[in-house]
């Protein structure tokens, strides 16, 4: 999504900003599950998680954590969902990196389960030793490179 078509990069978004730090902005979402539901937007227009630099990602998640703490301590919510969809296949609709901070009340709405693999959910899924070794080796090698 080009920056000039991004709803989070329009001048009107400035009127909705509640708080900002060096890398992120906080706005209320327009389609809330519960009052106060917020979005933490990257200031820089990037579509996905992997396009964020480390500092941007850290500042976005620290802001999301502070908002979550406020929901629980100040507004007495029971819990919080932090959601970041990165890429169309992951359900991302607005292609500007953002984190949903969803305040939750016990029993408010069912927790979304559409992303769960129905085949794996039919039984207790436990990766076998071959699968564990395969992924462990790949993750270890890739993480040690960075």
Commentary on this structure:
The protein is α+β, with helices and mostly antiparallel strands and 146 residues long. The protein has a 5-stranded antiparallel beta sheet, with helices on one face. A hairpin with a 3-residue loop joins strand 1 and strand 2. The protein starts with 16 loop residues before the first strand and ends with a helix. It has a single domain (3-109), classed as HIT-like (HIT family, subunit A), CATH 3.30.428.10. The protein is 28% helix and 18% strand.
Total number of strands: 5
Q: What does the main sheet amount to?
A: 5 strands, antiparallel
Q: Name the helicity range.
A: 25-40%
How many domains would you count in the coordinates? 1
Name of the top-level CATH class: Alpha Beta
Low-pLDDT ranges: none
Give the percentage of residues in beta strands.
15-25%
Strand order of the largest sheet: 1-2-3-5-4
Radius of gyration of CA atoms, rounded to a whole number: 18 Å
* Strand-pairing-aware structural class: alpha+beta
Shape: globular
**Overall pLDDT confidence:** 87
Total helical segments: 3
Query: Architecture in CATH?
Result: 2-Layer Sandwich
Distance between the termini: 28 Å
CATH superfamily: HIT-like
Order of helices and strands: EEEHEEHH
CATH topology: HIT family, subunit A
